[in-house]
Amino acid sequence: MVFSNHSIVILVNASGSVLDRLAVCNIPGVRIVEADFAAGETVCCAALQLSHDCSREELQVRLRAWAGARGWSVAVAPGPETG
Questions:
Q1: Tell me, what CATH number does 33's domain have?
Q2: Measured distance CA(64)–CA(83) in Å, rounded
Q3: Distance (Å, rounded) from C-alpha 4 to C-alpha 33?
Q4: Comparing C-alpha atoms, which of 24, 28, 25, 34 is closest to residue 1?
Q5: How many domains does the chain have?
Q6: In angstroms, what CA-CA distances link 60 with 39, 41, 77?
Q7: pLDDT per residue over 25-81, tens digit each?
Q8: Which of 1, 12, 62, 80 could form a disulfide with 73 if both were Cys (CB 3.0 to 4.6 A apart)?
């Protein structure tokens, strides 16, 4: 499968299921290029750089459903282009 699109994804968990490397390793249809996590007493967030096989718009729809089922919020932004 070719992963030609790149995006930055921010996941935020204030009361959902655990947000860690294991939780994000199985996002469907993507390859994680880089992942950074930060946690406080009541909130955790992840910044992910992803390569994916679909448009950014489709990725956002898919991730909102995937993250929402876990009680997380998600934002998707254009990622660095590789050449």
A1: 3.30.70.260
A2: 28
A3: 12
A4: 28
A5: 1
A6: 23, 28, 9
A7: 888 889 999 999 999 888 999 999 999 989 999 999 999 999 999 999 999 999 877
A8: 12
Token pair recorded at residue 7: 């995006």
The total number of residues written for the chain in this structure: 83
State the pLDDT at residue 79: 86
Return the pLDDT at 2: 64
Residue 60 domain flag: yes
Asked if the structure places residue 1 within a domain, the reply is no
The boundaries of the domain holding residue 15 are 6-78
Q: Is residue 21 scored above 60 in pLDDT?
A: yes
* 82 has a pLDDT exceeding 70: no
Contact 47, 35 (CB under 8 A): yes
Please indicate, yes or no, if residue 31 is contained in any of the structural domains.
yes
